[in-house]
Structures are given as structure tokens and as C-alpha cells.
Amino acid sequence: MKVMTVLGEIAPEEMGVTQLHEHILANADYSHNDFNFVMDEVDVALEEIKYFRQAGGQTMFDLSCTGLGQDVRGLKMIAAATGVQIVTATGFYRECSYPDYVRRETAEQLAQRMINDYRHGIDGTDIKPGILAEIATEYGVGSMSPEEEKVFTAVAYAQRETGLPVSTHCWAGELAFEQIAVLTRNGVPPGKIIIGHLGVDPEVKDRIFKIAETGVFLGIDCIGYAYEAWVKMKDPAKAVFVRELIQAGFLHQITISQDLIRKLYLKHYHGIGYDYLLRHFVPMLETAGVTPAEIDTLLRGNPQALFA
Questions:
Q1: Per-residue model confidence (pLDDT) at position 32
Q2: Among candidates 245, 248, 247, 223, which has minimal Cα distance to 236?
Q3: SS in 3 state form for 61-103?
């Protein structure tokens, strides 16, 4: 299938070097008192995406959706100005960010909202999504809530209709098997699912290998989060973990991204920027023993395979 960017369709082989889990314009400030989570400056974001382009990046997926401050008009402006191919999402994020209608409507009705975005455009525009994301479950609660299960069911219905890949928020893989179960029993192939945030805690590595055995894609992200205490697996260890996953036979299921969703990570605010992965983490992979051909698979081949 084709890949839908904010400027129109491209062939999968045109994606080139791709980061599948990023946020260019977003707002995750649910307490309304932390500007660090408000990334709404189009002019700043435009300059930031230029750094990604200069480092060799070609395609970026912005997973900001309903509940995450999505701005598709801004994304279109940035794509047109920088030449970076930007893919936007449709879906629902964390339960705390659900609009009221999510609780009122059925899974079928919610699915139709996402299908309408795919067919007609998001928020009254002609800009269409290329992925169903960032579909979340909470961490540390032990089970999926009824509302989360309804949203995951709706996403599965929308996936069957559109063919789009699904990308989830699943901290340390805690509820990965529940996410996979709801999606697959409703018809989503494992090869269309990315389970996000799997490279964050070295104490649960065994769980990640078991998740890999289901055939889903593994989202190794939160790269560059050197000072976040809750990201316990830092980048050098993360590079080694990628090598271990490759050695275990999972090369063709691994995706790597930064998941940059903090204003203070932008270069404008003296942070690492979107080019960190390509300029700094890729050399860490090489040091860990990942070959250039394997790195190419992570950055080019696997993103393309989602659209096979």
C-alpha cells in the first residue's frame, strides 16, 4: 500500500531514513502548568526538522493525535518548507485525554471517526493520516480499562477498513499482550502493529523477547532521554539491547525512534534535537556491534515493511 504523508501519497520505497515515533507539534500538558510539554511553535518546529533533514533523515511520523495537541495544518507547512516527508496520525491517546464523546460512543462509532479521517481528512482539512496512533494503555495499573479496550477495539475495526499500521503506547511492555490480544482477535495482523516504549527498563528485557515472539514490531524509542529517571535503560545499554534482539532473530521487527516530546529537548531550547538518533545513537549501535546493513534495515527496511 502507499504511505500517506501530509502532502499526499508516496511509495514505501520513497520513505528512506525514517523515524516512526516522534512528536513535532504536540501538547501533553495535562496539568496545565508545565510548558515543557507544550510544543506548539510552528516556526521553531520548522527549524528543528531541518536538522533532521541535514543529518540524512527523510521521513518522520508525528504520532500526536486526539488528546495530544495534533496540528495537521502546522505539519503541512513544515513538510512543505523542509522537504521532510511527515506522516500524521488518527486515533486516541491516554484515557485521561479522551474527549467526552469517547465514553459515550461505541467502538463502531469511534472507528468510523478514524475511517472518516482516512477517507476525507482530519479536522476539516484534506490532510489524511498514514497511521493509527498513539493508542495507549496506562502503566502500573495491572490491566486494560474498559474504555481503553473499547478504543483498541475501535482501532482494530479502523485498521481492517484502512489497512493502516497501528502504533501503541505501552510503557516497558507492561500491557503489551493485552494490547496485542485485542487488536489481533479483531483482525489486525501482528505485522501491522508496533508496540511502543519497549527499550526503557533493563529489568524487563525477558518480557520484550516474549513480545517479539508474537510477530509484532518492537518500538525501541525514548532515545536521547539521558536525564529522565523513569527511562532506566540509557542509550549505550539500549544499543546493546538492540544488538541482543538482532542476535535472537528479531532484526526485521525492530524500529528505532527518539519519541521527542519535551520542548527542552529541542535545539532551540539547548536540547539534543531530532538529529540525535542519526548523529549519536547510530554510532552507539555500531560500537555495540550492529552492522551497517542491519542499521539500514532498522531505519529503512522495517518502516517500509509496515506498508507491504
A1: 81
A2: 223
A3: EECCCECCCCCHHHHHHHHHHHCCEEECEECECCHHHCCHHHH
- Looking at domain 3-305, its CATH architecture is Alpha-Beta Barrel (3.20)
> Over the stretch 191-246, which tens digit does the pLDDT of each residue have?
999 999 999 999 999 999 999 999 999 999 999 999 999 999 999 999 999 999 99
48, with CB counted inside 10 A (0-12, 13-18, 19+), is buried
Three-point CA angle 183, 115, 212, nearest 5°: 25
CB of 134 closer than 8 Å to CB of 93:
yes
Please spell the DSSP secondary structure of the chain, one letter per residue: --EEETTEEE-GGG--SEEEEE-SSEE--TTS--GGGEE--HHHHHHHHHHHHHTT--EEEE---BTTT--HHHHHHHHHHH--EEE-EESB--GGG--HHHHHS-HHHHHHHHHHHHHH-STTSS---SEEEEEE--SSSSS--HHHHHHHHHHHHHHHHH---EEEE-GGGTTHHHHHHHHHHTT--GGGEEEE--SS-GGGHHHHHHHHTTT-EEEE--TT-TT-TT--S-HHHHHHHHHHHHHTT-GGGEEE------GGGSGGGTS--TTHIIIIIHHHHHHHT--HHHHHIIIIIHHHHTT-
Contact 226, 234 (CB under 8 A): yes
Question: Residue 296 and residue 88: Cα distance in Å, rounded?
Answer: 23
Alpha carbon 94 to chain centroid, angstroms: 14
- Establish how many alpha carbons lie within 13 A of residue 100's alpha carbon, considering only the half-sphere containing its beta carbon: 0
- What are the boundaries of each domain within the chain? 3-305
